[in-house]
Amino acid sequence: MSMINKKTTIAAICGIVLIGGAFAIKAHSDATKAATAQDIDLYETSPITSLDTAKVTDSVSANQLSQVGEGLYRLNADSQPVNALAKKTTISQDGKHYTIDLHQNGKWSNGHAVTAQNFVYSWRRTLNPQSKSEFTYQFANIQNATAIAAGKLSPTKLGVRASGKYQLKITLSKPASYFKRMLASTTYYPLDPAAVQKYGKKYGTSAKTTVYNGPYTMTKWNGTSETWTLAKNPDYRDKRAIKLQHLNYQVIKSTSTAYNLYQAKKLAAVTLSGEQTRQNKHNPDLKTVASGRIGFIQYNEKNPLTANKNLRTAISLSVNREQLAKHVLQNGSTPATTFAVKHMAKNPRTGADFTKDATVAGTADYQPAKARALFKQAQKQLGKSKIAITLICGDDDATKPIAEYLQTTVSKNLKGLTINVKSVPFPSMLSAVSKGNFEANLTSWSMDFADPIQSLQILESTNNSNMGHYKSAAYDQALNTAEGADALTTAARYHDLVTAARTAMTDQAVTPLYDARTSELVNPKIKGVVYNKFNGQADYRTAYVK
């Protein structure tokens, strides 16, 4: 999503899902008012970009969509799928055929019933090339999805159909042990055809041009506004489980502003900067939560400078990740050694974490001497004694210190290399990177669920989220085998994924920097929030103010 993919915590996550910048998702509340009103104030560090399932590519928008919409499943605290609109699921022995019976009390905010055909319509629409969705690759396991996305087949040929008003049948081209977890993603949410046809291209661009089937409905969002409200949905199928009446959001980019509001007892939770974490190390309300997010630099390999492997590797080896984690981030984040985060998978034979097996020496360590030697080779290959690279990133408070650290440490270790930081609002950065108008991008990727494929898939040559245009036949083959012949063979698939990760690191497809965590202060008056232990995603369905 996860970049898909789509994370939330009751406090900030200092990074994004898709391609850069830093998001935070934070809950806060006026304690005196919320105790009786069951209203809480929430904030994001970036505006909503869309509520259209085919258009959502960032974690903020996905977080909002997850609260106003509902799919077949949701992920619980252990990142495992549990029923949402799905009532019963039957899977064939070969893992290719899913029959899903739906709850019959799902309803859209316009009064229409949520039916199996709503899922069929939504998925076909996303895969239609006219939608220009960046997440069509998420459907690759479904029969004919790849050909449809490429414009080679009609969307009606997709391996999904309604076999009754409330029964969905899915046929996969290749089985996937994690398919139910994928179906929990907002990309797989249903759509009401009547509403989409009514609003046309405006669907999902404002609160009034969107319909909802989730716990909340949205108001006061005009498409660009930096404040909006989620109100309890009286037509939600499980409305008795919902206790919070209103979730009032605003965009706050400044960590100091958010912290000051918390100190003034106007926030129920806040994600802390490194300095704030130090100040609160003895605070009993301080906690560190997983983010399921990898921070990294991606390079535009269509650019003559950043296409140079020696240059990319030299940059990677000039970064002291221990120093970055301990003295810059200071929030519990740890150095990244490969393009994955911990606790995604374990070696079925040895029990070792995937990140350990996928680490390649000399690709993500701090080796300044080797970095200088590689940089000299890059200078010769490029015919330049002095090289300047622009690093584009988000303009929020959480990202800037990371960018400044990289700018200083890389230039210090690699004489002749200048890193120019270009901090811009997230939408501008997203647009530039999506169009290929960048050299290097400081970004992060959030995982929807615990499986290495969540990060590795975005480096596949045909993936829409492969903004750096990395291309490797060996890498693609390893992933194809993992998702094909070895899909249901645990040990073989694990080996394939390790091979892919090690290939990417050897090629320096990206420069992984940190395995993200967040430090938060949380007002104990907010109860009942269910956190996903892998990625920190918060489920507000059972939350309340004590």
Automatic annotation (TrEMBL):
A matching Pfam family: SBP_bac_5
Keyword tags: Peptide transport, Protein transport, Signal, Transport
Keyword Isomerase in annotation: no
A Gene Ontology BP annotation from the UniProt entry: peptide transport
Compartment(s): Cell envelope
Domain Solute-binding protein family: 81-466
Presence of keyword Transport: yes
SUPFAM superfamilies assigned: Periplasmic binding protein-like II (SSF53850)
Source domain of life: Bacteria
GO CC list: ATP-binding cassette (ABC) transporter complex; cell envelope; periplasmic space
Matching InterPro entries: Peptide/Ni-bd, SBP_5, SBP_5_dom
Main location: other
Signal peptide start-end: none
Molecular functions per Gene Ontology: peptide transmembrane transporter activity
CDD domains: PBP2_OppA
Family membership: Belongs to the bacterial solute-binding protein 5 family.
Name of the featured protein: Peptide ABC transporter substrate-binding protein
Organism expressing this protein natively: Levilactobacillus spicheri
